[in-house]
Design goal:
alpha/beta; globular; 26% helix
Length: 457
């Protein structure tokens, strides 16, 4: 986390203002937006003023992000007419659609000698290594990787994609906003690599462990200079996620949660989910909710399962807090596309399952036919791959049908949730008489001045 408390130096050094000024001149823009996490908003006015005085451009501060603070809020930046965005603090490094984003985060040095000593004492020289790090340590990670290569160690480096317009090659290992510039050796499978993560536990480490679940993980804590083998039972967590895919197979009403408007190809994945839902005979509704929380989703108890379109670090939600399961696009495709079996591999970046992507699996003729199956949740027969329902289905809004023996009757017409809405307080435009301004009550609500005098007279 970028913090003046942990970073020593002037404001220009902490927030790398000289780099920002150079970037602005290269882009030749006239208006930019600055995005700070909540804990850094106190420094936002000073940083904006220094940038404005040094570059003679218009600078705006985004006070509240539309989605998670790790995501660059491209939507809010374009709304105010900004031509570029500077993102401060922790970031998920997701790709954005043709909008320049510069990431600025804290730089903390990691001494290489204690790291190499711990590595030598813990692992063998023949072990194949993949080095990844928290963004705060990536400058030091580059130095450590160079020293390991000088020692003739087999090491690959997951380098952060710091420029939003950079598109990594599908032939390279890409995970959690990081790309390995070198190809994996053909004679060495991924499970023979040991991943060493420099940093503390968090969402980034969780995403790496889910995606590279065949690898052994070690974490190096720069504060204690200790190398620890991660004992998190990833297989158990994957089994929990597979249970959610079984719930998705039983679902009849699917809600698409649009939890990002800036990540590249978010519209394509929404259309892809709709296509999969229609092909499997499920009704699909789209919800634009901003930041996800259980209270928002509890307003729609009719939905059986939600599919979250979000950045990788905001996709794996704790489903214990939600009334209905919230799954990823990859999990939903496993539920409705019989051509994609559950293999234990996991994809958190939804862009990898789109057509023309490395992880795309098309629907086959078998998966488009009616196929009977037994639910592992309810134990009853179900159809996991029905032909898609037409939008002009004969089912009307006043028709009802049993969803399952444990639920109540529910309208199945396509207009069911469309008719639900809340327009706020009644405005009564033109019905309220216009009055001149006058003095109101004085004092506190517990007892206004002069309150009750008319009653006593």
């Amino acid at each position: 986390m970028l913090s003046p408390v942990s970073c020593k130096g002037t404001l220009e050094e902490i927030y790398d203002i000289s780099r920002i000024i150079l970037w602005i001149k290269e882009l030749d823009v006239k208006k930019i937006a600055l995005q700070f996490p909540d804990e850094l908003l106190n420094d936002a006015p000073d940083v904006a003023l220094k940038i404005e005085l040094s570059s003679n451009i218009e600078v705006h501060i985004l006070g509240d992000t539309t989605y998670g603070s790790c995501c660059a809020d491209v939507h809010a930046a374009t709304y105010i007419g900004a031509e570029a965005l500077v993102h401060f603090g922790p970031a998920c490094l997701t790709q954005h659609e043709k909008f320049p984003v510069l990431y600025i985060f804290e730089k903390i040095s990691v001494e290489s000698k204690p790291f190499l000593d711990e590595l030598t004492a813990t692992l063998s020289e023949q072990d194949n290594l993949i080095i990844a790090s928290d963004l705060r340590y990536y400058h030091s990670a580059e130095t450590i990787v160079a020293e390991l290569q000088a020692l003739k160690r087999t090491v690959l480096y997951l380098e952060p994609n710091l420029f939003s317009l950079h598109q990594p090659s599908p032939d390279h290992l890409t995970v959690s906003g990081r790309t390995c510039q070198k190809l994996l050796p053909h004679d060495t499978p991924i499970e023979n690599f040991i991943v060493i993560y420099i940093g503390e536990e968090g969402l980034t480490l969780t995403n790496l462990m889910f995606t590279l679940n065949q690898c052994t993980f070690y974490t190096y804590n720069p504060n204690g200079c200790s190398l620890k083998k991660e004992c998190v039972n990833v297989n158990q967590q994957l089994r929990r996620r597979y249970f959610l895919t079984e719930k998705a197979k039983d679902a009849q009403l699917v809600g698409i949660l649009v939890a990002t408007l800036g990540v590249a190809d978010h519209l394509k994945i929404i259309e892809h989910i709709k296509f999969l839902a229609k092909n499997s005979g499920k009704k699909c509704y789209t919800f634009v909710v901003g930041k996800l929380n259980p209270n928002k989703l509890a307003n729609f108890p009719e939905i059986d399962v939600f599919v979250a379109v979000a950045c990788p670090e905001n996709s794996l939600l704790n489903n214990e807090e939600f009334y209905r399961p919230v799954i990823t696009p990859y999990e939903f495709e496993i539920a409705v596309n019989s051509s994609r079996p559950w293999t234990g591999d996991y994809i958190t970046d939804f862009r990898q399952i789109l057509p023309d992507a490395a992880g795309y699996v098309p629907l086959t003729a078998l998966s488009q036919e009616q196929e009977a199956d037994v639910s592992l949740v309810s134990g009853q027969m179900r159809h996991v791959a029905l032909e898609g329902l037409d939008d002009d289905s004969s089912a009307s809004f006043d028709q009802i049908s049993h969803r399952n023996p444990n639920s109540s009757l529910l309208p199945v017409g396509s207009d069911f949730l469309k008719r639900r809405g809340w327009s706020g307080l009644e405005p009564h435009v033109g019905e309220t008489p216009v009055r001149t301004a006058h003095s109101g009550r004085r004092g506190l609500a517990a007892g206004y001045s002069g309150e009750g005098e008319n009653e006593t007279k």
